[in-house]
Write a structure and sequence with these properties.
By secondary structure, the protein is α+β, with helices and mostly antiparallel strands.
Length: 148
């Protein structure tokens, strides 16, 4: 597993922001897979990045200190050490968002097709099902829109 796959989504996005804001200072390459850095945050945090063994990464921030957590400071250091990974991460997120939006649009269009094929009585039955088994807010929103 890699740095990005072990980090939370929030750590990835915040790490990208730190990378872009140039908060990684004193980036030193120890060897092909290891780096040391200082990352400016609430205070300066010391990061040891081990790309080959991500669970060996360390940061002295409150979230990661003494734990095997990939924090935003480690991610920012990773992106600073290998900038093309930051680009890859952003491009992948854009692709996934576009894919998600296309799936949502396709699902919406399928629902519209189904609804257009239904009789008034069938539609009423489906709406009653939604009110009976759907979340409370659907009913409340419907009542508000149609009573006032």
């Amino acid at each position: 597993m890699g740095i990005i796959s072990l980090a939370s989504g929030n750590s990835c996005w915040r790490g990208l922001d730190y990378y872009k804001s140039k908060k990684v200072t004193k980036l030193n390459k120890i060897n092909e897979n290891e780096y040391l850095s200082v990352v400016k945050g609430t205070k300066n945090y010391n990061v040891h990045l081990d790309i080959e063994h991500p669970r060996k990464c360390t940061c002295d921030c409150p979230l990661a200190n003494g734990k095997r957590i990939i924090c935003k400071h480690i991610v920012a250091t990773y992106f600073s050490a290998i900038p093309e990974e930051a680009t890859n991460f952003e491009e992948e997120q854009i692709r996934l968002q576009e894919e998600f939006e296309k799936e949502q649009e396709n699902e919406y269009n399928e629902v519209i097709k189904c609804l257009n094929k239904m009789s008034k009585q069938e539609l009423i039955g489906e709406i009653i099902q939604v009110f009976d088994y759907g979340p409370e807010w659907i009913y409340n929103d419907f009542v508000k829109r149609n009573l006032y």
